[in-house]
Design goal:
Layout (H helix, E strand, L loop, with lengths): L2 E9 L4 E8 L9 H18 L4 E7 L2 E7 L4 E8 L4 H18 L18 H7 L8
Antiparallel strand pairs: 1-2, 1-5, 3-4, 4-5
Organism: Pheucticus melanocephalus (Black-headed grosbeak)
Membrane topology: Lipid-anchor
GO molecular function: SNAP receptor activity
Length: 137
């Protein structure tokens, strides 16, 4: 069971844009990592764009399960995990991250923010904390 990506996005009027993201692509071949990360960024934006305000959904994309939560204020979170990762845990993580993000980052910064301008460093910690490592038997 693995988490590959955790993203915070803003669903603005014209389109969705990424505010902050964390990725774990360590299980992929070195030469595939950048394209896998691009795929995850694109997929996160697409799923958030197609989701209604105030909705939660889980979408299967290739061998991944993408869990999206779009709050009524336009703040959205997407977790990309493997098929075995528990859905309930993903939505608990998204709730926690979006709540903390909205307290730490001013709502005025959401429409114009980008990963370079938004100061929120907790995503990498959450991604590793919620990572479930298989223990060899």
């Amino acid at each position: 069971m693995r988490l590959y990506s955790l993203s915070v996005l803003y669903k603005g009027d014209p389109k969705v844009h990424l505010l902050k993201a964390a990725y774990d692509v360590s299980t992929f071949n070195f030469f595939q990592r950048s394209s896998v990360q691009e795929f995850m960024t694109f997929t996160s934006q697409l799923i958030a764009e197609r989701s209604a305000l105030g909705s939660r959904a889980s979408v299967k994309e290739q061998e991944y399960l993408c869990h999206v939560y779009v709050r009524s204020d336009g703040l959205a979170g997407v977790v990309i995990a493997d098929n075995e990762y528990p859905q309930r845990v993903c939505f608990t993580l998204l709730d926690k991250v979006l709540e903390e993000f909205s307290r730490q980052v001013s709502k005025m910064d959401w429409p114009s923010g980008s990963p370079a301008t938004i100061s929120y460093s907790a995503l990498d910690g959450y991604l590793s904390k919620y990572q479930v490592q298989r223990v060899p038997v």
